[in-house]
Design brief:
Distance between the termini: 53 Å
Strand content: over 45%
Structural class: mainly beta
Radius of gyration: 25 Å
Helix content: under 10%
Largest sheet: 22 strands, antiparallel, barrel
Shape: globular
Amino acid sequence: MTNRKFGILILRSALLLSVFCTEARAQIDSLQLDSTVLSAAAKRQLLDFGKAGVATMDVAELALMPSVLGNADPLHFVQMLPSMQTNSEIDAGIHIQGCDHQHNLVALDGVPVYGASHLMGLFSVFNPTHYRSMSYSTVATGVNRLGGVIDMHTRRSIPEKVGVDASIGLVSAQGTVEAPLTKKSALVLSGRGSLVDLLYGNYLHMDDISLSYGFSDANVTWLWTPTREDRISADFYYGYDRVETEKAGADIAIDMFWSNAMAALHWNHAALEQTLYYSSFKLDVDVAEEGRQALLPSSISTVGYKGGWSRGQLSLMADAAMHEVLPQSPVISGTGVAYEPETVQRAFETTLSAEWSGTIGYNFDYSATLAGQWFLSAEKKPYFGLSPQLTGTWRFDSGDKLRMSAGMHRQYLFQTGLSNLGLPLEFWLPAGKYSDPQWSVGASVAWDKSLPGGYEINSELYYRYLGNQLEYVGGLHDMLDGSYSLERALQKGNGYAYGLNLLLRKTEGRLTGWAGLSAGRSMRTFDGGTWPSNHERLVEFDLVAAYKVGRWDLGGTVVAAGGTPFTKVREYYMLSHQIVSVMGPRNGARLDPYFRVDLNARLHFRDRGRMQHGLNFSVYNATAHDQEIYRKVKANREKLTIDFQRMYLGITILPSVGYYLKF
């Protein structure tokens, strides 16, 4: 039944793809890929693939792309690329080429941002109107991560006059103001707030649990260019989310509040770049059930310095950071259970790296990087490692490119917890007391080919071996009944991931966009055996299309993907009115396939001149497809029956309308 359902979803997507591939007659503004940043020529590019595994995105061009709930979120479109796995509605993780969420770095101008998603991952903490570009890499060169890097970039030049970019919709309201202070300095202010509870509060529920949700974030960027060779800037960010739940007919409530903050001072002088920064994330979880209460606080904060210098073919980089981490520390009341509280762990991390890049002949570009890491754990245990990385691009006379990458990476900060899906219930751990550093080795080969009619094809093969991986096997009930231990809740093992990514892009004409197909495995091996990772999707198809006609920008996205793994209950019975479950193979079954269509239409009342304004209409999950999110054992204690039921998200379709103003 599952394979048949998935086949139907792929068929639906193929029909949409046939429309997407229809050549439009008029050649007007569209999206384009080449080897530079985006331009506003007759061919526009949303993404640029430079050296192996690295792409850049012009955030301003997202105005032409489909909006999700009124937001053209940069991370949403990166997740539509075949190198990154799509998420479900309760998965906030970023999964790049089979890696776990914690393996990737999400940053703001190179500064790490912890907890980078709002609304359980539907969109990120990055207000798109505040940023100018984004870089995306499937290979974490120069940083201590096993996966990839997503880095948002703020304004680099002084605006000529005051500008405003604002919008309000059914889900959120947001706005950005940029203003020159002098001829050489400027200030950019952005804010965003949630309207979810106001308009959708009566519809937010999952199973028989009602939800109350809200979020807000704010950005400030100050820029000063005193000389031609100097650029000094300061970035500030703060955001928070709150979730309150209540289960009908039962004494249960879950309240969560999390916040993140970031401050950075950047100084670029000629070939020298330096940054001082602070970044933090704090989580408070309060679970109350039948007179029992569990408080689960955790936090992480980092103070650091980043520096880089380049001249000619040589680039040198230095990164030093002090981490202060509070792992999940349960506080239980109403049960007689007490745990020794976790103490704050302070660890020091430093990385020195050198990169040599150049060209052999006239058509082969290469770079070689060697990074050395030194990490001092909270227990004063030192770790030292080396991470080499090689990349190369062969440029053919036809314009085709062959891109290659291979290297080794290390990681000293880990994120794990109850969900393992990038949700705020997860917490951070430094290497040392609970685990040695993680490491990986991997390689990829990619081919880029241009076709007539503005089409381009990208294909990529990749493989990664992941060493010393962590998986969290604890649970809330373990905490409440007194059998919980963080050390016992962590199992250690290894893993590997491999796959094939295919991307077809159309870069000319009224109709532009891309279609991607990915297939691969992401496996983990622990003492209990080998099984798929919690986020693995065997096959995924993504479609992004934008069409411009007159004053209308029309667009849509389609996702059709295999279901993620879960551990199925093999048999269950009731003993003394308590459910006893016998579990099957770990992650041996899969949820139903995932399918979603999002539609967007933007009407420009005025799209030329100083002032632009109009309406944006969007529908999330336009086909009202029920998305299965998990399965659970449900018991009827009166009838003494037990059933293993599919659980769905309460909201099947989310329409939104908003007004935007820009001048």
